[in-house]
Amino acid sequence: MKADRLLSILLLLQTRGRVPATELAERLEVSVRTIYRDVESLSAAGVPVFTERGRHGGISLLPGYRTDVSGLTADEARALFVLSARGAHSDLGLDGALGSALRKVMAALPAPHRPAAERISERVLVDPARWMQSSPGPGPDLGELQYAVFADRRLRLRYRHSGTPAPVEYTVDPYGLVSKASVWYLVADLNGEPRLFRADRVLLAETAEEPVRRRPGVSLGDVWTVLREQVERLPKDLPARVRVRRGRLDMFVRIHGGRVTAQPPDAAAGPAEEWVELAMAFPSVASVRSLLAFGADLELLAPPAARRELARAAAEALRLYQD
After folding, report:
1. Which residues fall within 8 angstroms of residue 97, CB to CB, at 6 or more apart?
2. What is the pLDDT of residues 151-207, one digit of tens each?
3. Alpha carbons 142 and 311: distance in angstroms, whole number
4. Which helix (H) or strand (E) holds 213?
5. Are strands 49-52 and 153-159 parallel, antiparallel or unpaired?
6. Residue 120 to residues 9, 114, 117: CA-CA distances in angstroms?
7. How many whole angstroms separate alpha carbon 147 and alpha carbon 155?
8. Which letter does DSSP use for residue 19 in this model?
9. Element (H, E) at 205
10. Beta partners for 245?
11. Under 8 Å between Cβ of 13 and 39
12. CA dist list (Å): 314 to 81, 206, 317
Protein backbone atom coordinates (compact mmCIF):
# COMPACT_ATOMS: atom_id res chain seq x y z
CA MET A 1 0.00 0.00 0.00
CA LYS A 2 1.14 3.53 -0.78
CA ALA A 3 0.81 4.75 2.82
CA ASP A 4 3.12 1.97 4.05
CA ARG A 5 5.59 2.74 1.26
CA LEU A 6 5.64 6.45 2.10
CA LEU A 7 6.31 5.65 5.75
CA SER A 8 9.08 3.23 4.77
CA ILE A 9 10.73 5.90 2.60
CA LEU A 10 10.54 8.42 5.42
CA LEU A 11 12.06 6.01 7.94
CA LEU A 12 14.84 4.96 5.56
CA LEU A 13 15.74 8.60 4.95
CA GLN A 14 15.75 9.31 8.68
CA THR A 15 18.03 6.32 9.28
CA ARG A 16 20.40 6.58 6.32
CA GLY A 17 20.47 10.26 5.40
CA ARG A 18 20.90 10.62 1.62
CA VAL A 19 19.71 7.53 -0.29
CA PRO A 20 19.78 7.08 -4.10
CA ALA A 21 16.38 6.69 -5.71
CA THR A 22 17.52 3.45 -7.33
CA GLU A 23 18.31 1.92 -3.92
CA LEU A 24 14.93 2.97 -2.53
CA ALA A 25 13.21 1.47 -5.56
CA GLU A 26 15.10 -1.82 -5.14
CA ARG A 27 14.41 -2.12 -1.43
CA LEU A 28 10.71 -1.31 -1.77
CA GLU A 29 10.29 -3.31 -5.01
CA VAL A 30 8.87 -0.49 -7.10
CA SER A 31 10.10 1.58 -10.04
CA VAL A 32 12.30 4.66 -9.71
CA ARG A 33 9.46 6.69 -11.23
CA THR A 34 7.18 5.52 -8.41
CA ILE A 35 9.79 6.60 -5.85
CA TYR A 36 9.90 10.12 -7.30
CA ARG A 37 6.09 10.29 -7.26
CA ASP A 38 6.16 9.20 -3.61
CA VAL A 39 8.73 11.89 -2.82
CA GLU A 40 6.39 14.46 -4.34
CA SER A 41 3.57 13.15 -2.16
CA LEU A 42 5.72 13.46 0.95
CA SER A 43 6.68 17.00 0.00
CA ALA A 44 3.03 17.92 -0.59
CA ALA A 45 2.23 16.58 2.89
CA GLY A 46 4.77 18.97 4.43
CA VAL A 47 7.73 16.62 4.82
CA PRO A 48 10.95 18.58 4.05
CA VAL A 49 12.32 16.12 1.48
CA PHE A 50 14.48 17.08 -1.49
CA THR A 51 16.50 15.43 -4.26
CA GLU A 52 20.03 16.11 -5.45
CA ARG A 53 21.21 15.07 -8.88
CA GLY A 54 24.69 13.95 -9.84
CA ARG A 55 27.07 11.16 -9.01
CA HIS A 56 26.76 11.62 -5.24
CA GLY A 57 23.15 12.74 -5.28
CA GLY A 58 20.07 11.12 -3.84
CA ILE A 59 16.98 11.83 -1.79
CA SER A 60 17.36 13.45 1.63
CA LEU A 61 15.46 15.07 4.46
CA LEU A 62 16.38 18.50 5.76
CA PRO A 63 18.83 18.20 8.67
CA GLY A 64 17.11 17.97 12.04
CA TYR A 65 13.82 16.59 10.74
CA ARG A 66 13.04 13.31 12.49
CA THR A 67 10.85 11.51 14.97
CA ASP A 68 12.77 10.45 18.03
CA VAL A 69 11.55 7.90 20.56
CA SER A 70 14.05 7.42 23.33
CA GLY A 71 14.19 4.89 26.15
CA LEU A 72 15.83 1.84 24.53
CA THR A 73 19.22 0.80 25.87
CA ALA A 74 22.01 -0.44 23.59
CA ASP A 75 21.41 -4.07 24.68
CA GLU A 76 17.67 -3.75 24.06
CA ALA A 77 18.33 -2.40 20.57
CA ARG A 78 20.70 -5.28 19.77
CA ALA A 79 18.19 -7.81 21.10
CA LEU A 80 15.48 -6.49 18.79
CA PHE A 81 17.65 -6.83 15.70
CA VAL A 82 18.47 -10.47 16.42
CA LEU A 83 14.80 -11.02 15.45
CA SER A 84 15.81 -10.66 11.80
CA ALA A 85 17.23 -14.22 11.80
CA ARG A 86 15.89 -16.35 9.00
CA GLY A 87 13.32 -19.06 9.67
CA ALA A 88 10.08 -18.59 11.56
CA HIS A 89 9.17 -15.18 10.09
CA SER A 90 9.54 -16.52 6.55
CA ASP A 91 7.42 -19.60 7.33
CA LEU A 92 4.68 -17.36 8.70
CA GLY A 93 4.84 -14.96 5.76
CA LEU A 94 6.08 -12.12 7.98
CA ASP A 95 9.47 -11.33 6.40
CA GLY A 96 8.19 -8.09 4.88
CA ALA A 97 6.47 -7.05 8.10
CA LEU A 98 9.63 -7.74 10.10
CA GLY A 99 11.78 -5.64 7.78
CA SER A 100 9.31 -2.77 7.96
CA ALA A 101 9.09 -2.99 11.75
CA LEU A 102 12.86 -2.96 12.16
CA ARG A 103 13.16 0.11 9.91
CA LYS A 104 10.68 1.87 12.19
CA VAL A 105 12.60 0.81 15.28
CA MET A 106 15.91 1.96 13.74
CA ALA A 107 14.45 5.36 12.95
CA ALA A 108 13.15 5.71 16.50
CA LEU A 109 16.37 4.63 18.24
CA PRO A 110 18.49 7.19 20.04
CA ALA A 111 21.39 8.07 17.74
CA PRO A 112 24.15 6.58 19.97
CA HIS A 113 22.52 3.12 19.80
CA ARG A 114 22.04 2.92 16.02
CA PRO A 115 25.54 1.68 15.10
CA ALA A 116 25.28 -1.24 17.56
CA ALA A 117 21.86 -2.19 16.19
CA GLU A 118 23.11 -2.05 12.60
CA ARG A 119 26.13 -4.23 13.41
CA ILE A 120 24.13 -7.00 15.07
CA SER A 121 22.88 -8.38 11.76
CA GLU A 122 26.44 -8.30 10.39
CA ARG A 123 28.03 -10.00 13.40
CA VAL A 124 25.37 -12.47 14.63
CA LEU A 125 23.71 -15.09 12.45
CA VAL A 126 21.08 -17.47 13.82
CA ASP A 127 20.66 -20.63 11.72
CA PRO A 128 17.88 -22.76 13.27
CA ALA A 129 18.63 -25.87 11.17
CA ARG A 130 20.52 -28.71 12.82
CA TRP A 131 23.80 -30.02 11.42
CA MET A 132 23.57 -32.47 8.54
CA GLN A 133 19.91 -31.77 7.95
CA SER A 134 18.89 -32.16 4.35
CA SER A 135 18.20 -28.94 2.48
CA PRO A 136 14.73 -27.77 3.44
CA GLY A 137 12.07 -28.21 0.82
CA PRO A 138 8.95 -26.11 0.60
CA GLY A 139 7.70 -25.40 4.10
CA PRO A 140 4.24 -26.33 5.30
CA ASP A 141 1.33 -24.05 4.43
CA LEU A 142 0.64 -22.44 7.78
CA GLY A 143 -1.97 -19.99 6.52
CA GLU A 144 -5.13 -21.86 7.50
CA LEU A 145 -3.61 -23.06 10.76
CA GLN A 146 -2.70 -19.49 11.68
CA TYR A 147 -6.17 -18.25 10.77
CA ALA A 148 -7.91 -20.78 13.00
CA VAL A 149 -5.52 -20.08 15.89
CA PHE A 150 -6.07 -16.31 15.79
CA ALA A 151 -9.78 -16.52 14.98
CA ASP A 152 -10.33 -18.87 17.96
CA ARG A 153 -12.10 -21.44 15.78
CA ARG A 154 -12.00 -25.23 15.68
CA LEU A 155 -9.99 -26.93 12.92
CA ARG A 156 -10.86 -29.86 10.69
CA LEU A 157 -7.70 -31.71 9.65
CA ARG A 158 -6.83 -34.44 7.22
CA TYR A 159 -3.61 -35.74 8.72
CA ARG A 160 -1.03 -38.34 7.72
CA HIS A 161 0.70 -40.09 10.61
CA SER A 162 4.27 -41.31 10.22
CA GLY A 163 4.35 -44.83 8.80
CA THR A 164 0.61 -44.84 8.07
CA PRO A 165 -0.36 -44.61 4.38
CA ALA A 166 -4.02 -43.67 4.89
CA PRO A 167 -4.77 -40.17 6.23
CA VAL A 168 -7.03 -39.68 9.25
CA GLU A 169 -9.58 -36.89 9.78
CA TYR A 170 -9.81 -35.00 13.04
CA THR A 171 -11.64 -32.00 14.48
CA VAL A 172 -9.33 -30.30 16.97
CA ASP A 173 -9.26 -27.29 19.27
CA PRO A 174 -6.03 -25.37 18.56
CA TYR A 175 -3.98 -23.55 21.18
CA GLY A 176 -1.27 -22.31 18.84
CA LEU A 177 1.76 -23.05 16.68
CA VAL A 178 5.22 -24.01 17.94
CA SER A 179 8.49 -24.06 15.97
CA LYS A 180 10.84 -26.68 17.40
CA ALA A 181 14.24 -27.19 15.69
CA SER A 182 12.88 -25.69 12.44
CA VAL A 183 9.82 -27.99 12.47
CA TRP A 184 6.37 -26.43 12.90
CA TYR A 185 3.80 -28.13 15.13
CA LEU A 186 0.13 -27.46 15.76
CA VAL A 187 -0.66 -27.78 19.47
CA ALA A 188 -4.30 -28.68 19.97
CA ASP A 189 -6.79 -30.66 22.03
CA LEU A 190 -8.42 -33.72 20.50
CA ASN A 191 -11.51 -34.73 22.50
CA GLY A 192 -10.14 -32.74 25.43
CA GLU A 193 -6.68 -34.37 25.38
CA PRO A 194 -3.48 -32.56 24.33
CA ARG A 195 -2.09 -33.61 20.95
CA LEU A 196 0.81 -32.59 18.73
CA PHE A 197 0.45 -32.42 14.93
CA ARG A 198 3.39 -31.81 12.59
CA ALA A 199 2.37 -29.05 10.20
CA ASP A 200 4.08 -30.71 7.23
CA ARG A 201 1.87 -33.79 7.68
CA VAL A 202 -1.37 -31.80 7.48
CA LEU A 203 -2.80 -32.68 4.08
CA LEU A 204 -5.85 -30.43 4.41
CA ALA A 205 -6.92 -27.87 7.00
CA GLU A 206 -10.29 -26.18 7.17
CA THR A 207 -11.42 -23.66 9.77
CA ALA A 208 -14.79 -24.61 11.25
CA GLU A 209 -17.57 -22.20 12.17
CA GLU A 210 -17.70 -23.38 15.78
CA PRO A 211 -15.63 -21.46 18.36
CA VAL A 212 -12.64 -23.22 19.84
CA ARG A 213 -13.21 -25.29 22.99
CA ARG A 214 -10.04 -24.85 24.98
CA ARG A 215 -9.78 -26.03 28.55
CA PRO A 216 -10.32 -23.11 30.96
CA GLY A 217 -7.17 -21.56 32.36
CA VAL A 218 -4.86 -23.60 30.08
CA SER A 219 -2.38 -21.73 27.87
CA LEU A 220 -0.31 -22.73 24.84
CA GLY A 221 2.78 -22.85 27.06
CA ASP A 222 1.04 -25.21 29.51
CA VAL A 223 -0.01 -27.66 26.78
CA TRP A 224 3.40 -27.52 25.08
CA THR A 225 5.15 -28.35 28.36
CA VAL A 226 2.96 -31.44 28.82
CA LEU A 227 3.46 -32.62 25.23
CA ARG A 228 7.21 -32.02 25.27
CA GLU A 229 7.57 -34.05 28.45
CA GLN A 230 5.54 -36.86 26.89
CA VAL A 231 7.81 -36.95 23.85
CA GLU A 232 10.96 -36.86 25.96
CA ARG A 233 9.65 -39.69 28.15
CA LEU A 234 8.91 -42.03 25.25
CA PRO A 235 9.70 -45.58 26.35
CA LYS A 236 13.24 -46.74 25.69
CA ASP A 237 12.82 -50.29 26.90
CA LEU A 238 15.58 -52.08 24.97
CA PRO A 239 18.86 -51.62 26.86
CA ALA A 240 21.96 -52.05 24.75
CA ARG A 241 25.72 -51.78 25.02
CA VAL A 242 27.97 -50.54 22.23
CA ARG A 243 31.61 -49.74 21.82
CA VAL A 244 32.77 -46.83 19.65
CA ARG A 245 36.24 -45.81 18.53
CA ARG A 246 37.21 -42.74 20.58
CA GLY A 247 38.05 -40.82 17.41
CA ARG A 248 34.39 -41.07 16.36
CA LEU A 249 32.88 -40.56 19.79
CA ASP A 250 32.01 -36.87 19.41
CA MET A 251 30.19 -37.50 16.15
CA PHE A 252 28.40 -40.51 17.62
CA VAL A 253 27.16 -38.53 20.64
CA ARG A 254 25.95 -35.68 18.43
CA ILE A 255 23.81 -38.10 16.41
CA HIS A 256 22.77 -40.70 19.01
CA GLY A 257 23.23 -38.77 22.27
CA GLY A 258 19.51 -38.93 23.05
CA ARG A 259 19.76 -42.72 23.33
CA VAL A 260 22.86 -42.78 25.56
CA THR A 261 21.73 -43.54 29.11
CA ALA A 262 24.92 -42.53 30.96
CA GLN A 263 27.29 -39.59 30.66
CA PRO A 264 29.76 -40.44 27.85
CA PRO A 265 33.50 -40.13 28.59
CA ASP A 266 35.72 -37.37 27.26
CA ALA A 267 36.65 -38.10 23.63
CA ALA A 268 40.08 -36.49 24.11
CA ALA A 269 41.03 -38.64 27.12
CA GLY A 270 42.80 -41.34 25.12
CA PRO A 271 44.07 -42.43 21.71
CA ALA A 272 41.62 -42.26 18.82
CA GLU A 273 41.99 -45.99 18.13
CA GLU A 274 40.85 -46.92 21.64
CA TRP A 275 37.34 -48.30 22.09
CA VAL A 276 34.86 -46.58 24.42
CA GLU A 277 31.91 -48.55 25.80
CA LEU A 278 28.51 -46.88 26.19
CA ALA A 279 25.13 -47.88 27.61
CA MET A 280 22.16 -47.06 25.38
CA ALA A 281 18.42 -47.67 25.08
CA PHE A 282 16.32 -48.17 21.94
CA PRO A 283 12.55 -48.20 21.41
CA SER A 284 12.72 -51.44 19.39
CA VAL A 285 15.09 -54.06 18.06
CA ALA A 286 14.68 -52.76 14.50
CA SER A 287 15.80 -49.26 15.50
CA VAL A 288 19.38 -50.45 16.12
CA ARG A 289 19.85 -50.52 12.32
CA SER A 290 20.70 -46.82 12.51
CA LEU A 291 24.04 -47.81 14.06
CA LEU A 292 25.24 -49.23 10.73
CA ALA A 293 26.12 -45.71 9.62
CA PHE A 294 29.27 -45.95 11.75
CA GLY A 295 30.50 -49.08 9.98
CA ALA A 296 33.55 -50.71 11.56
CA ASP A 297 33.98 -47.80 14.01
CA LEU A 298 31.16 -49.20 16.17
CA GLU A 299 30.28 -52.63 17.54
CA LEU A 300 26.95 -53.50 19.13
CA LEU A 301 27.83 -55.76 22.09
CA ALA A 302 24.40 -56.60 23.52
CA PRO A 303 21.65 -57.75 23.54
CA PRO A 304 21.98 -60.78 21.25
CA ALA A 305 18.66 -60.10 19.48
CA ALA A 306 19.87 -56.64 18.52
CA ARG A 307 23.20 -58.04 17.28
CA ARG A 308 21.29 -60.48 15.05
CA GLU A 309 19.15 -57.64 13.72
CA LEU A 310 22.23 -55.59 12.87
CA ALA A 311 23.84 -58.62 11.20
CA ARG A 312 20.70 -59.13 9.07
CA ALA A 313 20.76 -55.47 8.04
CA ALA A 314 24.44 -55.69 7.08
CA ALA A 315 23.80 -58.90 5.08
CA GLU A 316 20.90 -57.24 3.21
CA ALA A 317 23.13 -54.30 2.30
CA LEU A 318 25.88 -56.66 1.18
CA ARG A 319 23.51 -58.60 -1.10
CA LEU A 320 22.22 -55.36 -2.58
CA TYR A 321 25.67 -54.00 -3.46
CA GLN A 322 27.53 -57.24 -4.15
CA ASP A 323 28.62 -57.60 -7.75
Report:
1. 89
2. 999 999 999 987 777 899 999 999 999 988 778 899 999 999 999 999 989 999 999
3. 43
4. none
5. unpaired
6. 22, 10, 5
7. 10
8. B
9. strand 202-211
10. 275
11. no
12. 50, 46, 5
